[in-house]
Amino acid sequence: MKRKFLTNLGFFLVLNLLIKPIYVFGIDRVVQNTVGAEVYGRFFILLNIAIIFQIFLDLGIENFIRKEVAQYPTRSGSYLSNIIALKILMFIPYLIVCASIAMHKGISVDNYLLLFLILLNQFLASFILYIRANLGGLQLFKTESFISVLDRTLMILIVGFLLLYPVTRYLFRINWFVFAQTISYTFTLMLGLFILVKKTGTVKLHIQFKQIIPVIQKLKPYALLLFLMAVYYRADSIILSLLLPNGDEQAGIFAHAFRILDFMSNYAFLFPILLLPIFSKTLHQKQKIDGLLQLAVLLLIIPSLTVIGPAILYRRELFGLLYKEHINLSADVFAILTISYLGMCVSFTFGALLTANGNLKQLNLMAGTAVVINLILNLILIPRYQVMGAAIANASTQLFTLIVHIKLAWSIFKLKFNAIILIKFSVFILFMVFGGYLIKLINIHWLLGASILFSSGLLAAIIIGLISINGIRSILQERIQ
Q1: Rounded Cα–Cα distance for residues 154 and 186 (Å)
Q2: Nearest-angstrom CA–CA distance, 219 and 230
Q3: Which positions ≥6 away from 163 have C-beta within 8 Å?
Q4: Sequence-separated (6 or more) residues with CB below 8 Å from residue 333
């Protein structure tokens, strides 16, 4: 199982490191600079509304399918027709709820088309996630990884042309960006559905209520968890727009930092995608998970810290390179939100294990508490500190979920305390902190300083033994059992 995890993680990483940085920094960032913080902030608010209420489209199906199909591969085909029909049916209440909230917020008439396209895109994206969940559950990880980057590849081609061609660049509108997403999602969905149908059989769009109602009953805890997580992760920008007279602009500043961390979370999100079906199968076969869990946490946290350290140290230089306005404030928001990212990393790995084990009740209780904490902190901090208050609220909430995830996993799986790993990790953190301080004192060019801290951090992790090259090599050389 370790070998399968590492080989597929490597393939996922190669594709994502090739495509997604180009999209985030070459497309999304340029769009932000082109349309301005206020316009992009308005789009970002509507996008977050659409994502929070995507529960109507997903219903927790993705995590359920990954877990279920991993344990019982033959069930993929039996779910396919019913769930596709159900998703189409649920688009209507999704549209009504999101449109009502957006209008209540005071969306202008000229943004109705933008809102509809955003909602349509989330509808298409939910289909793609469902297809990917089936492919992941069937452990066709390489096929899933190709589908996962196809829409971004098409966006690079379409929006890249619009941003490079002088006439369209001058006239560029945020609606063009969203419509390009519609085209990219549609093509990706059609190809993904074609591949999945070839694996599982013919699709007939119908709902057999005798079959689907028991499935919906099983989906309820997954759906609730998805909704609560979306609220405490995405609500900050919406609350900014509701509480502040310049809320759209503040949301745009928040988006400057958040979108970079959103990009980094693509790396983190690869872990639960791979771990959930592998954990499900491992637990179903009553095998130990300690080694795989430790490997996954270290492979996620250590490289993340080697990137985050230099990014925080040179955050203002970095944001000065990326953006044209609100540079210092966006950089400081980013520094706080890196705590959110680290909390997310731990939550993803431990959350995948707890979900695979069926501990949805505990996870939903944690997520519900996190929503309350996030809303209270936002209501207290935003009126006083504006976008910085939203960042503090987000980071505090993610820290809470990090602690609870570890505590739950520790209690349920009787994990053993590894003092040696803790000591090594503490040494690594001290090295990154003092190394960054010394590099800053030398006063060299920030790109050189960042490169030195990043490479020396990775080297230190290897020397200390947090990342074992020989261990990884031996796992990759094992025969598949």
Answers
A1: 11
A2: 16
A3: 27, 30, 31, 34, 169, 172
A4: 253, 254, 256, 257, 387, 388, 391
State the pLDDT at residue 112: 80
Compute how many other C-beta atoms are within 10 angstroms of the C-beta atom of residue 231. 22
The Cα 394–Cα 396 span in angstroms is: 6
Q: Are 338 and 304 in contact (CB under 8 A)?
A: no
Contact 152, 20 (CB under 8 A): yes
Distance CA(366)–CA(148), nearest Å, equals: 29
Q: DSSP states of 1-23 as a string?
A: -HHHHHHHHHHHHHHHHHHHHHH
* DSSP code string of 347-398: HHHHHHHHHHTT-HHHHHHHHHHHHHHHHHHHHHHHHHHTHHHHHHHHHHHH
Distance separating alpha carbons of residues 4 and 6, to the nearest angstrom: 6
For the chain, the maximum distance between any two Cα atoms, rounded to a whole number of angstroms, is: 70
Q: For residue range 91-135, what is the model confidence (pLDDT) as tens digits? A: 888 888 888 888 776 677 677 888 899 999 998 988 888 787 777
Cα of 135 vs its chain's centroid, Å: 19
Residues 6+ apart with CB under 8 A from 136: 66, 69, 70, 144, 273, 274, 276, 277
Task: Spell out a b/e string for 45-76, using b for 16 or more CB atoms within 10 Å of the CB, else e.
Answer: bbbbbbbbbbbbbbbbbbbbbbbbbbbebebb
Contact 319, 255 (CB under 8 A): no
d(CA 184, CA 20) in angstroms, rounded, equals: 14
Could you tell me the pTM of the whole model? 0.75
- Residue 320: φ, ψ to 5°: -65, -30
C-alpha–C-alpha distance, residues 136 and 142, integer Å: 9
Phi and psi at 45, nearest 5°, equal: -65, -50
How far apart CA 453 and CA 445 sit, in angstroms, is 12
Q: What is the DSSP string of 277-339?
A: HHHHHHHHTT---HHHHHHHHHHHHHHHHHHHHHHHHTHHHHHHHH-SSSHHHHHHHHHHHHH
